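ARCHIVE RECORD
Type: protein–small molecule complex
Small molecule: N-hydroxy-L-asparagine
Source of inputs: curated submission
Record status: active
Notes field left blank by submitter.
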Amino acid sequence: MALTTRRLFLAKVSLGVAGLGLSKYANAGFLLRINNFPIVISTWKHGIPANDAAWKILSGGGYALDAVEAGVRVAEDDPEVRTVGYGGAPDEKGKVTLDACIMDEKGNAGSVAYLQNIKNPISVARLVLEKTPHVMLSGDGALEFALENGFKKEKLLTKEMRKRWKKWKKEEREFKAKINVENQSEENHDTISMLAIDAGGRLCGACTTSGIAFKMHGRVGDSPIIGAGLFVDGEVGGAAATGSGELVMKTLGSFLVVEFMRNGLSPQDACTAAVERITQKVSHYEKHQIGYIAISKSGETGAASMQPGFNYAVKTADVSELREADAWFKKL
Ligand code: SD4
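STRUCTURE (tokenized, with ligand):
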């Protein structure tokens, strides 16, 4: 559910009485809390601990870029999150290949694609943003860059995922998109995408994934593609995606959501319109799940998905919760 204009308005005028609304970063003893900042939102249930990590930085007055990087690293590090980083699902050849990107409020971007043996691709993407004249590094070059910058090579395929890959090779053998949003243990597409606005109103985003499970060797999805998996325009808003990357790439989904917001749509309506675009332009969309989250520069949020079951985590000073996104195919 998006924040209503009325709620935002109330947030804008709420006084910091008796500690309520008083921000750690403010140095005035008495202040008017402006806007709904800081705020962080991220995709799926694993967004809750990720938001908590981001919040530690945001609530201390830190930079949104640091917050989104630290936030999604929680999912990258967690072997129970089988769709991101360490413990992520391998491709058809049993190789874990990671995609990630990050973008700041000024439109600076960094990305890595098809990166192997590095647990935190989001941090490599951030270094691409900060240290190179480029936006995207891939494969061996991305790995070399990571190693030169002090990252360690690690084995990312866990025993559990190796077992699953072996089972898939024996029983399924061919890649199929799965819309099993209720059953985490069977899930094959749960990227973490995160958008945050810090106390200073700076809007940044991050997106990281091991991609769709058992994808073709060499396949890269939407998640490292600026404009597809993630897009931020600090003067308008930000959007990020999860789900079958091919559908998002064919419609440049996150860029589209931000452009809809630029043209006056709310984050909620912009997400819904971008899902609708897929239904107009991409065949077999009904066989896939995709989800968008969005935030306007004033902190209003929205989310929409193709299928029911997509949820996203929201954290502000007042709220920490998982919200159900509006689905194109409603629940019966
Ligand atoms: C991809 N979008 O590689 C990613 C998959 C994913 O939640 O995990 N989405 O297509």
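CURATOR ANNOTATION: The mean pLDDT is 87.
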